[in-house]
């Protein structure tokens, strides 16, 4: 006989939400990733209203209409613009729902490890106001580890380096626990910044974000190319005259600019690995590190890291989806979910709620 509770489970979406600075990725149990969109909103500057979300807002970025501005409400890895984050999240959740239904839900969501109480409250608030039912919060590094294939039963330590847009998070986990984690508020977007600055200062060309992203993802590499004379034409706006213009750049010119940022990330990894307890260090010596996040897709970054830290380094399958896949796995193991979720709701509910007017 089918009991009401099990019946309810059949029609309940279990949703995993990775609310990232660059993209929001949502996966639903039984369906996998159902939404992967930029964490952006387009705002009408006069009415202050949101006119587009996600991909639609992303398509406007850099070519906005007169009164429209495209913003990333989560820049910095936390809820910078709470009201807009809330609306964006609500929009994405609605879109991700099975058949647009209004059924009860449970959700698990990731947060960066160095998140403050205030930021955590804001995230949870944003989630709850999206009417997603019960919301569990889980540390990003642990989710990424599970998503990258680390088992919660494994007693030996694994190191996961998540390189996101605005944060790089290093987590050392064992037995489904975080042993240590460090997080810096810079990530792969730092490469975009230095590339744009280089083009403006040294080549006299102002370029948009889409162009820079294209250079980074198709032309840049973390290792010195054999042939450094490959060229690409970059178009934008001449700094002096303001006219539309183009310059040619070589991969040899791009390499040292990109390497400077990759080196910073590698230094952070190396520093973290020097502070491990001997047994943990022994495990990592054997296993090396696993890379996740969109930043891991930079051509050759695993090779660079391998050379830099003298340990194995590999990129997880679907590195951008590691966190969301790890979150999704929690629904198969409710006990583990209970143990790893960091809601501390009783504490939080009594705390001051600074964002509500
Ligand atoms: N093929 C690629 N090559 C190089 N970089 C890439 C590639 N694809 C994505 N990226 C970069 O990865 C970053 C986004 O990664 P990800 O989606 O993991 O970020 P996020 O989770 O939204 O950010 P955060 O974790 O900082 O909040 C962006 O900086 C993007 O430019
Ligand atoms: Mg991320």
Which small-molecule ligands are present, each listed once?
adenosine-5'-triphosphate, magnesium ion
Helix proportion range: 25-40%
Uncertain runs: 345-357
Order of secondary-structure elements: HEEEEEHEHEHEHEEEHEHEEHHEHEHHH
Summarize the entry for a quick read.
The chain has 357 residues and is an alpha/beta fold.
What does this structure look like?
With 357 residues, this protein is of the alpha/beta class. The chain is 38% helix and 25% strand. The protein folds into four domains: 1-36 and 84-149 and 321-341, 2-Layer Sandwich (Nucleotidyltransferase, domain 5); 40-73, no CATH class; 153-187 and 262-320, Nucleotidyltransferase, domain 5 (2-Layer Sandwich); 189-258, Alpha-Beta Complex (Actin, Chain A, domain 4), CATH 3.90.640. It contains 13 helices and 16 strands. It has a five-stranded mixed β-sheet with strand order 3-2-1-7-8, with helices on both faces. A hairpin with a 3-residue loop joins strand 1 and strand 2 (23-28). It is flat. The protein starts with a helix and ends in a 7-residue tail after the last helix. 43% of the residues are buried. It binds adenosine-5'-triphosphate (ATP) and magnesium ion. Magnesium ion binds next to loops.
